[in-house]
Amino acid sequence: MKLYYSPGACSQAPHIILHETGLSHDAVRANLSDKTLEDGSDYTKINPKGSVPALELDNGEVLTENAVILQYLGDRSSFDLLPPFGEFRRYRVLEWLDYITTELHKNFAPIFKPDATEEVKAFARKTVSQRLDYVDAQLGEGPFLLGETLTLPDAYLFVISGWAEKMLDGLAKWPNIQAFRQRMLERPSVRTVLRSEGLLEEESAG
């Protein structure tokens, strides 16, 4: 498999899940500003939408849309990231995936747009903050969204928590999310991904 990603974007979630599962893959960085890959080729030939993530399968098929890619990876994992069909817990996992996609990720979009007015950005920040209030209350002491076991939406929430930390003046308002982020930062998969995306400085030797 081949994952097309952009550092710090929502593609970081499947990047983390790939390392959690140990599924064999290559990671290819896409430049979203000019829609090119590191070798200069046209990324839109891989994903005509021009967005990340995209997951190219060994048979040449390409999947897009973050939540779908996460489900695909979860179904191919022997872990409890996505419970099998027939288990009610599976739908709790998908419920959280959908909430993060539609209520958090989507509402962050205006905050990132340089041409959005300050009024629009202020409304988006207020909306996202309200959604994070809900997540913080539901998360509690965790350690994860659905209790003791890491599932797919935890990787997605980690990405969102990073955006909130930078764009909403930190996570102090959401202590449970803040603690969750710190726990996630201790996971080898997360540190590996952050390092590979150039978002984690190598620890100095000695």
From TrEMBL:
<dbReference type="InterPro" id="IPR040079">
    <property type="entry name" value="Glutathione_S-Trfase"/>
</dbReference>
<dbReference type="InterPro" id="IPR036249">
    <property type="entry name" value="Thioredoxin-like_sf"/>
</dbReference>
<dbReference type="Pfam" id="PF13409">
    <property type="entry name" value="GST_N_2"/>
</dbReference>
<keyword id="KW-0808">Transferase</keyword>
<protein>
    <submittedName>
        <fullName>Glutathione transferase GstA</fullName>
        <ecNumber>2.5.1.18</ecNumber>
    </submittedName>
</protein>
<dbReference type="InterPro" id="IPR036282">
    <property type="entry name" value="Glutathione-S-Trfase_C_sf"/>
</dbReference>
<feature type="domain" description="GST C-terminal">
    <location>
        <begin position="86"/>
        <end position="206"/>
    </location>
</feature>
<dbReference type="GO" id="GO:0004364">
    <property type="term" value="F:glutathione transferase activity"/>
</dbReference>
<dbReference type="InterPro" id="IPR004046">
    <property type="entry name" value="GST_C"/>
</dbReference>
<dbReference type="Pfam" id="PF00043">
    <property type="entry name" value="GST_C"/>
</dbReference>
<feature type="domain" description="GST N-terminal">
    <location>
        <begin position="1"/>
        <end position="81"/>
    </location>
</feature>
<dbReference type="InterPro" id="IPR010987">
    <property type="entry name" value="Glutathione-S-Trfase_C-like"/>
</dbReference>
<dbReference type="InterPro" id="IPR004045">
    <property type="entry name" value="Glutathione_S-Trfase_N"/>
</dbReference>
